Predict the structure.
Amino acid sequence: MGFFFQLIMVVWSCFAALFLSITCHLPVVLGDTYGEDAAALIALKNDLQNTPASWEKYDPCGAPWDGITCNNGRVVTLTLASMNLKGTVASDIGSLTQLQFLDLSNNPGISGQIPQNIGNLLNLTRLMLLTCSFTGPIPLTIGNLAQLVYLDLNSNKLTGNIPASLGRLSNLYWLDISNNTLTGTLPVSKGNSPGLDNLLKAKHFHFNKNKLSGSIPVELFSSSMVLIHILFDDNQFTGQIPSTVCLVKSLEVLRLDRNSLNGSVPSNLNNLTGIIELNLAGNKLTGTLPNLTGVTTLNYLDLSNNSFDPSPIPSWLTTMQSLTTLVMEGGVLQGPIPRSLFSLPSLEILKLKNNRINGTLSLDNDTNRQLLLVDFESNQISSVTVGLVTSYTLILYGNPICVSDLANTRYCQLPTQVSDSYSTNLTSCGNITCPQGQKLSPQSCECSYPFEGLLIFRAPAFQDISNSSRFTGLEYQLWTNLSLAPHSVYLSNLYFDVNDYLVAPVDFFPSNGIYLNQSEILRISSYLTNQSFKPPSGFGPYYFVSLPYIQQGASQAKSFSSSAIIGIVVGCSVLVILLFLLGFYALKYRKRAKEAALNPFETWTRVHSKGHGDAPQVKGVRWFSFNDAKKYTNNFFEGNEIGAGGYGKVYKGTLPSGQIVAIKRAQKGSTQGAHEFKTEIELLSRVHHKNLVSLLGFCFDQGEQILIYEFISNGTLGESLSGRTGIWLDWKRRVKIALDSARGLAYLHELADPPIIHRDVKSTNILLDEDLNAKVADFGLSKLIDDEGTGHVSTQVKGTLGYLDPEYYMTQQLTYKSDVYSFGVVMLELVTAKPPIQRGRYVVREVKAAIDKTKEFYGLEEILDPTIRGETSLVSLQKFVGLALQCTEELASKRPSMNEVVKEIEAILQNEQFNERRSASASTNLGIPVQGIHQPYDEQISGKGFSSDEFKYSGAYAFTSHVEPK
């Protein structure tokens, strides 16, 4: 009775408080929380999905809620970074008038405009909204936040101009509005109108990757400023570099590259005596090269691809004792190379290709041992002296010496890679294999679910990503600063993207157990997004992008929320009814058991229906018992095993009819749950096409998840390209494989009802049959598009690194064009025979950087698969690569549809056949026999050619699920 009396008093107290607030205009206090703050948080909760479980509690400050910090009942901190939130931010947030810290970062599902009344938060010192999907303009009212120190709006979809009102933020230290679609000019103060030149305490101007235009105002900079980072790269700025930027003597990083700046470089640039990185590449700068005499701190210098006057290598370059990376490409340098340049003690990377350097290149044993790359491609070097010890990569391709003395040496070949990419050492853990979704912790050598993300460094003072001491130092700083267990941080597959940003995938592992709890995710993400973490020297400015972390197995906090109170009262009222129903169920149990014997889905419906709907709706596939599956595989005999992966193993089996099948058995504890298993069954059973692997049946019996497919004899495309299958794919066959795969995906997008997005297109999910026809596989991650024609679905990011659509990754808006991007990466694999990310090198970036339409093979000699170089049509290669790059455009709106891709590849293949027939005819007329290596598809391709019907969609289709073959 005492409990129910207290419950009644709680309800009465809330009612009385509400009554007083309405009639007497008194503030409400909900438990320990000030009423207006509680109301604002409830409004925020109602507009957002996936808020923490603790937000169901009765009292935000007293309970407390995760991400909320209070002081005397007033909310002062609201941090919900990396919570996979979706929805919009309620305008009621402006009622949190005591709020000092607001961080909603790394929630791409948050969209809509930033509320104007955010300007009411006059005590706010940090506003962190990076990597969301906010649209519209930056609110003018942000200029009211006089206490603001940090403002980070990076990586949203903001449009419009930079508000001049930001110039009133006199305490601002960090201003990051990069990676949006902001336009217009940079505002400077005029009369009573404020401007960015008033931000005299700011150390960071990060405006890169927008569409800002006009000239950079001379008035923007002054000697009173304390800026250390100016990131204006990848915009549309024109005009001259203002000489006033050289008055900011505190400057450490200046990136003005990838604009349309013109005129000469300011003569007082050498006043920047503390600068570490200077990047002016990709502009229209003229005049003489800048004189940097006395700039002794410079680590990274890039002056490439401008229109400077031809010049010998400046003498001041040989005095740069701190220089690690020198990039001066694009025709400005001429004459001999000074021998002393190679003795610079810190120099690691030297890129001087496409210049007019001549004479003798001297690289003797006195050469700096730190050197990793010396690139003199396409110069005029006629002789070279190389020491006995050459630990660096030397590139002389395109020089006269490669026609004579060194013609057959490695120096005259374009290397497939320059250096390895660092990865955390796991050799002490042996050969442990983790279930799908889990990774091996370097700290414990046990499998667990790490919190994954990307550290993106926008101005690193180096380009070497193989230096173990540099990156073990980064790991040490991460686990130390974040108070994590030693060695609980894992780095791998580092690479430089198209903007020369260093992308470092990072995993944070739990110290105990296999999951991180929600509060740990919040703490790690917030620490990184609000710049509390300071990386080691040389890494420069960064930002953090996280992948969604779905907490599983964690206990859900319970408390006296209003719904819980109502539930208790109602529960007590119906107790007798429940007891009656329990008895009724016992009487019916025997009948249900009998029905289960006849209904193979009864177990599914009973156990898995919650959150996953009813049993799978299947068409044309059989249900097999577990005993059937054992019989077909000889009790899962090890000799019948043909593949294995994180999900489980695949066995070769034989049905009673004699048909050979592939039987995929999920391992115990597999991370593919009932939902993914059901999705794959339903999709495979209802979609049929010759370029999709057919599902024949499945088993959901005795706790087993088993899928039975048609047997595909020649493994995956990825294996053939890597050489593991021993099957050689010539150029025409690769184009045909691309066509087969594209047709399959086009069918899913346009002819399936409802349409389907595959979501995991990659070379290991494309299987090759006995005639090397391609079939798309693995539909466990696929999504139906049935949202009234919007063409997209909001969903957490899933897929494979290297193939992921960057727009989907940032916005969580999955579209048909996400498959197009992944398919474009596969097309580049067909050209290069390389995985998308290999030792830090991203194939999309490498191809884009290498393309030169004036050169043979499109300028792709160094990355083109050597096995097809001699038999590849230049025209078809150009069209194929051009199409692949269209597919991998960063913006989805610029990519073609899969139907358009099919038509383009059909045209390429038809052109190849026409050229082949013409060549064959010419050879026959000259009496020359046509010869070639016999392939399993010789008759199909070379003998018969393709019929016109093969260039149309087939009406029959199906799918499969991929497991890595052994």
